Structure formats: structure tokens, C-alpha cells
Amino acid sequence: MVSKRKLSKSDVPGENSKTDLPKTKKSRISDKEKASAQDGVENDGVFEELLKTSGIILKAGEGQNEIAVDQTAFQKKLCLALKKHPTYPHVVQEFISGLESHIKDRNQFKNCLLPCAPTRNEGSRTLVHSYCESLIKLLLGIEILQPAVVTLLLEKIPEFFFDIVGTFGTNFPRLIVNQFKWLDRLVDSQDLVKKLMQMVGVSPVPIQHDIITSLPEILEDSQQTEIARELSYLLKQGRRLTVPILDALSRLDLDAGLLAEVISDLRKSLDLSSCILPLQILGSQKKLKSQVQASSSMSQVTTSQNCVKLLFDVIKLAVRFQKDVSEAWVKAIENNMSVSDHKVLDLIVLLLIHSTNTKNRKQTEKVLRSKIRLGCVPEQLMQNAFQNHSLVIKDFFPSILALAQMFLHSTHPAMVSFGSCMYKQAFAAFDSYCQQEVVSALVTHICSGNEAEVDISLDVLTDLVILHPSLLMRYATFVKTILDSTQKLNPCQIRKLFYILSMLAFSQRQEGSYIQDDMHMVIRKWLSSTVPNHKQMGIIGAVAMIGSMALKRNEGDGSLERSELNSENDGQLSTLLDLVGFCCEQTPEALALYYDELANLIEKQRGNLDLQLLDHFGKSLVENFPSDFVVDLNPTVDGVFLFPLKSLYNLDEDESQGAIAINLLPLVSQSELGRVNDGVSNPSKRVISPICLSPSFRLLRLYTGEQNNGSLEEIDALLGCPLYLTDLEVEGKLDSLSKQEREFLCSLLFHTLNWFREVVNAFCQQQDAEMKGKVLTRLQNITELQNVLGKCLAATPGYVPPPATFDSEALEAVSSISAAGPVKKKNGRKKKPDGSKTCFADRSQVDDSSEGNQPDTELSELEKTAAEREAGNPLAQLQSYRPYFRELDLDVFTVLHCGLLTKSVLDTEMHTEASEVVQLGPAELLFLLDDLCWKLEHVLTPGLTRRVPFSKERGYKDTGFSHLCQKSPKEVATYVVKLLKPLCNHMENMHNYFQAVVTENHGVVDGPRVNIQEYQLMSSCYQQLLLTFRFLFAWNGFSQHENTDLLRSALQVLADRLKPEETEFLLLEELISESFQYLVNFQQSVPSFQCAFTLAQLLIAIAEKPITSWKREKIASLAKQFLCQSWVNPNGDREKGSQFNGALHTLLCVYLEHTGNILKAIEEICSVGVPELINSAKDGCSSTYPTLSRQTFPVFFRVMMAQLENSMKSIPAGKPSDSSEVQLEKLLQWNIAVRNFHILVNLVKVFDSRPVLSICLKYGRLFVEVFLKLAMPLLDYSFKKHRDDVQSLLKTLQLSTRQLHHMCGHSKIRQDIGLTNHVPLLKKSLEQFVYRVKAMLAFNHCQEAFWLGILKNRDLQGEEILSQASEERDSNEEDSTENTAEEPNGVASESGTDSSDEGTAD
């Protein structure tokens, strides 16, 4: 007690001297201290004595420690007291021991960790701040105490490993760690951080969490990099500390390299699948959210979602406030090229950055587009993100909407598909506001008028109305507004729109009644319109409504209300059918469209329509068709016609009794007569037109099949019945006919062909051998009639055929272009337009300036092959008349399975009288393959490369593909995969045929025993087969994960041809290799260069899944083999023409791109092939490269120049750190490249045509620019070590640049705009080259080696161009200067000016 009194005596004066309090105040404080002595700490050791002396009063129990002085003053007083203590430094240890004893009590320890309270004096203000640090933190601020206090605190943490909060209600570890934050100075920061990281390794997760999140406030700047690496390593060890580590890393200042490395590691270690909810919780999540009371399941949902939410909140904070973090994330995702390594996390982070950081938005969009194109972010990944993490992604909805809109604007099919999937997933996963925005965006796309956007947006709405009809019904008002913009929609889009509206109107019954009223009103208005386009839309819309109303009812629901609704529905259906029939019966085109739409409806909804409702129009159809188009077969027919009537193409001649015939010629005569008489007809009588023959038969056979479970026995007589036509032996008779007669004959042939096409469509799937034989015969009839029609069309210019497809809005535009036909002179050649020379110059000028390695073409693959096949053919090309033929169904191609068929000829007693062999011949095979290729190109080829086959102007792209467009690309690809076996059989037959031809003629294609017509026909079949394979395997849908099984099935068919029954368990890569090898075997039999070119493209399409080194070598070897092969027609002429040149261009690019050493390949062509060409006759070619002739030299020259320039870009630029060996290797590559460039440039002296000059000027500039960018840095650093090599390189290049300078002068003399356009940029590059060489010499301290001379303007042959007036005396001086400049002891290289030359001395 004595010591306590002494402390009081010494303490009070101290306080008075510091605060200058009055005496009354002093006595009052003393009394208060005495009164509260029982609340204070009564221990009177050094620890308590020094604290009280310095201004802190320790409290016991729940009370806070009190501080009576400023914190800084306390620390100074305590530090001074310790240092002046008699036992210093031993007193420090005593002080720490006292502290340790004091904090053994948990309450006292808690007081020491919590902030001190300022001493409150009654009646006066305190000078202490209202907030004070804790006692421990104040002690840590004293340097002589800090190490011991740190050790003491860290030793206390393990005491709370198993009682972190629990008993005492206080998180002591967190309070302890908080003491280390924001200290003014750390005596030994390395030791502290090391001990903290050791503590992380042994602590429970909550303590680890607290330590890690506190590190950014504890670390010094120099320690951040090291600790970031340790945290990144911890992140790899497990997922328990993911959130605190992300939190800590986001607050550390890391350099860009380390940040990218950390984020890359983070991407690999983070796996959101651990946060995915269990299926049973996912299923009940929406239900649980709607409940007010909480449950255990809801708790699990919340916990799981909060985990992911917290994770992305941390990333979002880092991205928002630290620019480097967002850039590092984007770079880490961009650099990851493996498809399998991309995760849901990547997609969500990209959406997060796009939504949060506007500055990185463009970069994010670029990365996302790139990943989608490469297939790294498949749609399945996006679906997982939306389905499992919708709460996180919902925050990014504006970005999702913006990205989806951007993707739909794209022309890349993968991006368009991804954008449409984003819309569907957002609609399904988000709330009503987001759903409304999605529907509004889709409606905006549809009303934009962009055809591609309209198609994909309608497809999205179609999927939504099928998957979520009740949800979409809420926004039916938005969808209904599209009816105001129908003028921008084509017929197929109108069909989709009314299908969507009909589903909404009739699937929800009462809720959709207001949509029904609007649809009825619009359709009535359109049907009553006299505008053909409006009537067309009305028919399409009405049939779509009929389809929804005629769907089968739910038989289990027999309620009165349901019955009344069905009765009302049937009444509406009957009224609508009568209305459409009445509005169409006077217009054949409208009636034909009505029949076609009903037929499409039955085919699409096969098995789902109410048969009783079908009878409403089916009965009248069954009655009308025979009465309108079918008559009894009689030897004589009454009537007067333009041509004598004759019954043709009867396949049932043995059935004389009850035979029928198609009354075609009388109907066509009646129709033509009606056209002449301005269409006068009885308005009360239904019009019977041959235009309706094929559509009504299509509807009849689909209706009959639907009623009889696919059986067509009731109408099978129509397959073999004859037609009333006329004698079709037109050879030599066409010139004697009038224009009207020729047009009548053409119309008759078109109707006959369309009838046969529909007959083949109808009966192609019949299994009876007799029926199959008749179908093959009808195919033969089609090919025969097409030959006759071709001759008639060639003699009837300007003829417009009768329409065959009725849902096209651009048919008139097509006919005006295509029907004109080729205009011929009397000698049979096409008449050239006026100014043909100018036109040729303009065309060549455009062609010469085209960019890249691909030739400028305006034709699709099929147009090219058709043009090649029909070159020189006197028949008019039928390709331009394709929209006037009825479309073949995909089912027709099952005929390809047929081999030899035996058709029995029966006698009157139904006994077999004879047998006739019916075979699918080459002409029929070519007909089927040609149509199949058109279909595959239309469906499987991306929109960027596909072109409308019928029209060169804007039109409806689906004309002639109405039935096909109702199937998805995957459905079409699946169907073709099933045809691969018969296609392989046919291709092997072609291979054997041409092998036999070559063997029989001893390797000579144009031998005397070759049947030229048969050879050309088989060659065309071969080409179409290869094109079919190529279109299939080049389909970009195979790159999608969901189509992998389909690709495997296709490859397995090819691999089975080599290894039967051994491919079932092969890996995909092995199947690709076997399929590749199978197709390579056809190289020996390809009959034409077009076939060879297509085979190379097919091999590339298969090898790219993925391509390996041996496949590259094989493709290069194959391409070289084709280039080194002489391609001769059966008539002995060498193949040539624009199509040949285009294929040669591509094949040469394939060879150079896939060869192992492109420089060596170019040098071989230049040093071997070109000299052989120069030494050959005028119309000769190279013996090593027979495809290299004077006509094809510009093709070779363009490809070699372009590929040489591209290959140089792969040589890395020189660096100061490169070793001597690396420099020498790069110099060697540049020496070879420059030597090749020199050879190519000098070839212009021999081949000085305008295209070659233009190519040389363009690619010469590009080569010089690449040399300046990549080679000159190498010369800077290798000049001293490899001076001779550098000098040799510059000498060779100088000779080439001088020749380029002469070309510039030559272009000016010729005054050719196409050539002179290249001159300014080329001269600029040449001038840059001069000064860059000077800079290189200066860099190596050889300025004296650089000199300038005067370079005259010369032409290609080196003759001087006197472009300016010059005197004779000046001329002699300039000649002397020029001779000096060309001395061999210097390296000269001219600039872009007309009078400078430079060089380097040895």
C-alpha cells in the first residue's frame, strides 16, 4: 500500500503539471480514484506502475482501459520512462512479463485489444481525442517494445484455435491480427510476415481467413510481390481460402507480369462447379424463393449462391478500381488457346469486365468474338453459366443484352448462334423485367429489315414459344406489333411469324382470344387485297392459323367448357377454310400457293393433325383432282391444239382396261388461250390451270399418306400413267416453228418435268421393287426431257417459264434476268458488248489490285462446275431456270441406294412375261447429285460464302428451297451422313471406271477408244460426288461439341471402307486419319483439274479436325502432284479458262502453305519451271509443271509473290541478345528470300504483261516494307560479325529495287492509271530503304561507306527515259555519274526520288 500511495503522490502532480487543472478538480479526481479503486487493477508491478505514470489506467471486468493523455504523449512518456529506468534494458523484459501476466485473464486481454476510453472529468473538457487506439496497438508503436509484443501476441493465437468466438463471445484471433494493421513502423517486418504466413499454415480456416484479409494493411510495399506469389500458391492448394485470397490480391499493388501470372493461376484453380446446387435444390429453388418462411433447403440455396456471389463481388471490386486487374484477366483468358481449359468462370468474368469497366469493353468484345469463332466458348458453357449462376449473371444483364444484339449483327454463323442462345437463356433464367427487354430486343431485330437478323430472331421466338409458351404469353402484345412491319418480311418469315402468333393465340385458349381477333382481321384484309404480295401473306398466315386450330385435342379432357371451346374452334376453322378457298379459286398462282402451304403443314405436323378436320378440305381435293387433271386414256381426243396430241411416257401399257392419263396438253392450250384473251373467264367457275397440277398432286399424296398411315396405294396409278403431250422429236424442227409455238412447247415441257418431279417425290420411298423401277424410269424421263428443253430454250430467247414456286417475292426479277438467255451471233459465238477492250482493261485492273491470295470470283462452287461442264455446250444452261422447277424432297435421294433393279413385265393373266433391267444411270446420278449439291451449299455453307444460285440481284434467297428451309442444318447433315455408304459406292465406281479407261488406252486420256460424251458425264458425276463430301465435312457445325457424335458417324463410314468392322472403338483422331487415307486413294483417278482441286479441299476439310504434320506433308505432296500433272480433255485440248485459273490459284496456295519449306518450293518453281516455260514453244508449257503456261503464268506469279511476302513475316526481327548462330540462321533465310525476290522481279523483263507488272509493283512494295520492319534490325546487330553476308544481301536487294524503279518509270510512260496508282507508295518505300540503310551504317560507325549517285529513269529493258529536256553536255556528265554508281565495289540501292543512288563500300 505504501508503494501505491507513492504512485498516487507522484502521479497527481504530473497530471496537474500537464493539464493545468485547478486544485478543486485535483481533489475531486483523487476522491474518484479512491472510490473506484475496487474496479481498477490492484497489481503494483513495473508494468502497471509505468503505464499509470505514462497516463493509462488499467481496468478489470467489463470496463475499458482509460487514457488521460494524448496517445503520442503516452508513447513518448512510456518510452522515456523505460529508457531512464535504472534497470534498462532489463526493465523491458519485466514490462513484457507484466503484460503477459495481465492478459492471462481473458477479460483483461479483451480490454487491452479494444480501444481505450478517454478519461472523463466532471465539469471540464478533456484534451484526449474521442477515439483512442487499444493498449496493445499503442505498445506496438514503441520500437523497444514492438518485437516482444509481436511475439507475445502470436503466441496467444493458438490458445483460441478451438474456441475462436464461442465461450467468450469475442473473436480474439481477429482482434489480435487487427493490432498489426496500419502501424507507423515495423521494426522487423520480414519476421512478422514470415510468422503470420507460418500461422496461416497451421491455423483453422476462420483464423486463416482473418490473417490473409489483413495482409494488405500489414505488408510493406517491398513485400507485396513475394506474398502475392505465396497466396497464389495457396490458391492452388484448395478452394477453402479462395475468397480471402482474392480479397487480399485485389488490394495488393502488383506489377503487370506478376498480376497476369497470378490471374492465370487463379483461372486454373477456380472451379465454380463446386458451388453448383444439388439437382433437388435447383428444382425447388423458385418455389422456395416464393415462400415467406425460411427452411433448411432455402438455407442451403442461399449459402451456395452467396459463395459464388461473394467470389464475384471480390473480382468486381478489383476490376472496377484497378485497371491492371481487368487487363490481366482479359489477357489470361485470351492467351488460353485450349478449348477444354475454358470454364464458366471465363465467360462470367468477361461479362463482369464488360459490365463494370467501360474502358476495357472493346477489348472484352474482341476476345469474346475470337473465342466464339474458335469454338473455345461453346453454347453449353453459356447454358451452364445461366442455369447454375443466374443470380450472379443477372447483374450483368445490360451487357448480356448489348452483346447479344452485337452478335446478331455479325455475319459469322457461330456468333449469330451464340447471340441467339444468349437471348433464350436470359429469357429462361431472369425475371419479368429482363424477359420483357429480351422480347423487345427481338422485336426490334425483326422490324429492322435485315434479313439475317429477322430470320434468327424469329427462330429464337419460335423456340421460346415452344419451350415457354405461358411466359411468352405475357408479352404477346409486343410480338403482335410485328404485324405492322410485315412488308419487310419474306414469305418464309411470314410463315414463322404466324406460327408464333398462332401458338400464342390457340395454346392458351381464353388468354389468346384477343390475338385471334387481330389475326383474323389482318388475314381477312390481306386475302381480300388485289395486291399479289398481300394475298400471298394472307394465304400463308391463314394456313398457319389452320395448323394451330387443327392440332389433335387432348382426349382426356372431356369437360363441357373444353367441348364448347373445341366446337367454337371448329367453326372458326371451317369459316377460315371457306374464306381462303373463295379468295383463291379465281387466281391459279394463289390457289397453287394455298395447296403448297397446306401440303407443307401436313408434312410438318405429320401425325399431329386431327384427321376429322383434315377431311374438311381433303374430300373436296380427292374429288377435284381427278375431274380437273385426269382423263380416261383414249386413242383419240377431241379438240384443236397447236400441236397434234400424243400419249407419251406410259409405264402401264399392259394395263389397257381402265387406263388413265394426265390431260396436260389440253390444259396448257386452254391456259395459253386464256392468256391471249387477257384472262377472260367465268367469275363463278373455279379456274383449272396446269400451274396447279403439281401443287394439288403434292397435297393429294400427303393427305392420302396421312389418312392411310403412309400408304399411297389409292393413287399409285398416277406413277405410271401417261401424259397427253405431243411428239417431242424437236431436232431440226425448232427453226420452222413460230415464236408462239416454241413458247408453248417450252411451257409444255416445264409442266411435264414438274409433274415427274412431284411423282418422284411422292413414290421415292416405296419399298416395292416394281414401284422402285418405275421411279428410276421417271428419273430417266426427267433427264431426257431436260435435254429436249435445253434445245427449245436455246431457240426461244426471252421466254418466261410458268411459275413452279409460289412463295417467292422475287420471281419476276429473276425471270427478267435469267430468261433472256445468251445472245449469239450467226457463227455461234456470243456477241461482245461495245467497248470490249475497255471492259477487259477495267476488269483486269480490278483483278490486279485485289488483295490477298484468293482470286476475285462471283460464282459459287456449283456455278463454277456448271459453267465448266457446259462450256461449249449448244444447249442453254438450265441452271438459271432452277426456280421454275419443282423442288425435290430430301427423301428422293434414297434412290441413291438403288443398284440394279429388275422390273417384271406381266402378261394379261398377271404372269411374268419378261424381265427388264432398270439401272440408275450416269445421267440420272448426275441429276440427283447436282440437286443434292445445290441443297448442301444452300444449307451447310455459311452465309458469307454462299451466293443465291438464280439471281445476281437482290432477291429471296430461299427461292426453290422452301421445303428444305423447314429443316435445320443439323437435320440435313444427319440425312446426308446416312447417304454416305451409297455415295462411297458410287465414288468407288467412278474411280474404277477412270482407272479402267486409263488402262485400256495405255495412260492416254484422249485415246481413240474413249467415249467423249460418256467420259464427260462420268467426270461430272465424280466432281459432284467430291463436292457433296466437301460440303458435308466443311460444315462448321461439326466444330460444335453437340455434333461430335455425328462427325464420328460420318468418319466411321469412310474408315469402314478401309478397315471393315474395325472402327467402332477407334478414337476420333484415328478415324480422321483412316478417312483421310481413304480419300487420298482417289488421287490416281481424278479425271479433271476441277476434281483434283475439290479433292484437295475435301482433304483439307477433314485434316483440319485437327491437322497434323504428316497430313500437311501429304496435302502438299498431293497438291504438287496435281500441279505437275498434265490436264487434258478427252478431245485432246489442254484445260484452260477462268475457272481453271481460279482453281489453279487456290491449289498453288494450298501447296505453298502446306509445304515444309516455302522458300525452297518457290525457288524450285522459279529456277526449274519458269526456264522450261521460257524455252518452250509459244503455246507450250513447263515439262516439270505442265500447269505452268504463258496463260497461267500471272496466276503462278501472283501466288509466289504473295506467299513470299507472307512467309517473311514469320522470320522474327533481330534482337541485340541474339547469338551469332541465331543471327547467321536468320541472315541465311533472308538471303534465300531476297534471292527469290530478285528472280521473280527480273521475270518481268520476259513476261511484261500488264497483270504481271501490277502484281510486281504491289507485292514488291509489300516485300520492301517487310524487309524494313523485320530484316533491318537484324542487319543493325549482325553487321559487325557478319559483314560479308550483310553486304551480299544488300547488293542482291539493290538490284531488285533498281528494277522496281525502272517499272515505275515504265508505268509513267504507259500512262496506265492502274499501274501508276502503285508508284507513289512504292517510291516512298524505296526512299525509306535508302535512309534506313544509311542509319544502319551510322549505327555501326561506317558512315563513310555511304554515298549517293544519280539514278536515271529507265524502262523495263534499261533504256533511258528522256522525260525532261536536257542538253547534250549534261547528258554526258550524267552517264559518267551513272557508270560510277554501278561500280562493283559498292552496294547501291535507289531511293524513291528520280535521281539518287546509294551504296556501301567494301
From TrEMBL:
<comment type="similarity">
    <text>Belongs to the Fanconi anemia protein FANCD2 family.</text>
</comment>
<feature type="region of interest" description="Disordered">
    <location>
        <begin position="1"/>
        <end position="40"/>
    </location>
</feature>
<dbReference type="Pfam" id="PF14631">
    <property type="entry name" value="FancD2"/>
</dbReference>
<keyword id="KW-0832">Ubl conjugation</keyword>
<dbReference type="GO" id="GO:0005634">
    <property type="term" value="C:nucleus"/>
</dbReference>
<dbReference type="GO" id="GO:0000793">
    <property type="term" value="C:condensed chromosome"/>
</dbReference>
<feature type="compositionally biased region" description="Basic residues">
    <location>
        <begin position="823"/>
        <end position="832"/>
    </location>
</feature>
<dbReference type="GO" id="GO:0036297">
    <property type="term" value="P:interstrand cross-link repair"/>
</dbReference>
<feature type="region of interest" description="Disordered">
    <location>
        <begin position="1361"/>
        <end position="1402"/>
    </location>
</feature>
<dbReference type="GO" id="GO:0031573">
    <property type="term" value="P:mitotic intra-S DNA damage checkpoint signaling"/>
</dbReference>
<dbReference type="GO" id="GO:0070182">
    <property type="term" value="F:DNA polymerase binding"/>
</dbReference>
<dbReference type="GO" id="GO:1990918">
    <property type="term" value="P:double-strand break repair involved in meiotic recombination"/>
</dbReference>
<dbReference type="InterPro" id="IPR029448">
    <property type="entry name" value="FANCD2"/>
</dbReference>
<dbReference type="GO" id="GO:0007129">
    <property type="term" value="P:homologous chromosome pairing at meiosis"/>
</dbReference>
<feature type="compositionally biased region" description="Basic and acidic residues">
    <location>
        <begin position="17"/>
        <end position="36"/>
    </location>
</feature>
<feature type="compositionally biased region" description="Acidic residues">
    <location>
        <begin position="1370"/>
        <end position="1381"/>
    </location>
</feature>
<keyword id="KW-0539">Nucleus</keyword>
<keyword id="KW-1017">Isopeptide bond</keyword>
<protein>
    <submittedName>
        <fullName>FA complementation group D2</fullName>
    </submittedName>
</protein>
<feature type="region of interest" description="Disordered">
    <location>
        <begin position="822"/>
        <end position="860"/>
    </location>
</feature>
